[in-house]
Amino acid sequence: MTQVETLAQQHHARAIVKIILDIGPLSGIEKDLLAAAFPIASAGSLAENAQLQINDLPIRVRCNACNLESDASVNNLVCQHCGNWRTTLISGDEMLLKRIEMDT
Questions:
Q1: How high is the pLDDT of residue 104?
Q2: Contact 64/86 with Cβ under 8 angstroms?
Q3: What is residue 5's three-state secondary structure?
Q4: How far apart are CA 62 and CA 101, in angstroms?
Q5: How many CB atoms lie within 10 A of CB 24?
Q6: How do strand 15-23 and strand 51-56 relate by DSSP bridges?
Q7: Cβ neighbours around 41 below 10 Å, total
Q8: CA-CA distance, 71 to 83, in Å (whole number)?
Q9: For the chain, how are helix, strand and coil distributed in percent, rounded to 5?
Q10: pLDDT of 12 over the 90 cut
Q11: pLDDT tens for each residue of 18-74
Q12: Phi/psi at 31 (nearest 5 deg)?
């Protein structure tokens, strides 16, 4: 909320209409709990009446053996190309503030 408020003030917004977040399944963030807490966290702010949209990010890994990228799942971070289990996580553990729509 601090980042959202700062951006809104920088753009002289009267209100924040919509907040769009991208959240990966390995981020440790419970999307339902975040959505339920949003009205409380935004109360009294420029985002008090804003719509919160949460998008799912895929889990992506890069294989340390064949160096290719592939999709993976929460408990199965293996390379989909060669089956190697030695992979590096490149996406799926983040929460990104993708976009803010403001009323200026």
A1: 86
A2: yes
A3: helix
A4: 34
A5: 20
A6: parallel
A7: 14
A8: 12
A9: 20, 40, 40
A10: yes
A11: 999 999 999 999 999 999 999 999 999 999 999 999 999 999 999 999 999 999 999
A12: -60, -40
